[in-house]
Design goal:
The protein is built from three helices and three strands, in the order H-E-H-H-E-E. The termini are far apart. 60% of the residues lie in helices and 14% in strands.
Length: 70
Amino acid sequence: MNKQQVLALKMLCDAVVEAVGAGGTDGVPGGTLYAALMQQGCTLNQFESLMTALIRAGKVTKRGQLYFAV
């Protein structure tokens, strides 16, 4: 990945974490997040990889099909 791609990925991660945070204590359904990203060309595999990375980084948690900001 080049510097521009890394920056774009960081911006995407920050935006997803912010969107999950907007869900508050109710959380955000994974399907809703995926649908929004799918509109921008994100595949299911890319979405799952992104969310797994955010969970491992401690930025979000997942309970059932809901994501919550940490």
